[in-house]
Amino acid sequence: MNLSPSKFPKHIAIIMDGNGRWAKKKGKPRISGHRQGGQTIREVLSVCQKLKIRYLTLYAFSVENWNRPQSEISALMDLFHHFLRKETKNLIKKEVRLRVIGRIDELPEKVRKEVTRSLEATAKFDKWNLTLAVNYGSRTEMVDAVKAYAEAIHRGKENPEECSWETLNSYLYTFDLPDPDFIIRTSGETRLSNFLMLQSAYAEMYFSKVYWPDFDQAALLEALENYKDRERRYGLTGEQINELSMTEHSVT
Ligand code: IPE
Ligand code: IPE
Ligand code: MG
Known about the structure:
The protein is of the alpha/beta class. It is about 45% helix and about 15% strand. Strand 3, helix 4 and strand 4 form a beta-alpha-beta unit. It is globular, with a radius of gyration of 19 Å. It starts with 10 loop residues before the first strand and ends with a helix. The site of one 3-methylbut-3-enyl trihydrogen diphosphate has 10 residues, from helix 1.
């Protein structure tokens, strides 16, 4: 496979789905699928670094996932805690900055503590960026943004007459991240499930049949191969895009 780096997305966001079905297929408890999914995170991050893809965002736990059985929720929280504890030193070694988006303050205290520790320990890096969406939902993100914005109006820091998309964007959890270029969902489901709904306005979508624990380098390369043939038009015509890419090439 010969992929040109200029055709890579700058920011990949993945809905890591299918852990439960992966485990069921193997006759194992669902949590073993989640555990194996943690291993996939390490592998996918390494492949992104190899390919010089600087931004990777992963959907780990949605606000709706609190409605799952309590035993699964507790096991998942234990896994996050364990993952952060173990992984922080690797992130430092790889010079990856971690971000966590979502309502962190609603997570169990021991998870919150690890989150804070990992965020602080990696805050100085800026080249590689791993973002975990935990207790995340686009609609709660919108609610939190509107509350913060309204508060800023109240304090006289914002003027609604001057409100633009850039203004509102600066109140989202993702204020310091570029929009995702490529959204991948594993496991064959073809929906967003409340993930980055505003940020993905012009993202390309890709749905892989592979369950997340089996999503390896080959599966990611297959997705990227598919991405490279797409034409992103942002509302323009194909002809306009051709002209733009010709002027870009004559400049460089
Ligand atoms: C994704 O796998 C992980 C989380 C949502 C936490 P699932 O647990 O949703 O796996 P399936 O969809 O039941 O197979
Ligand atoms: C979406 O997966 C959330 C995460 C991957 C963390 P779900 O498995 O919870 O989504 P639905 O319920 O199938 O839409
Ligand atoms: Mg699922």
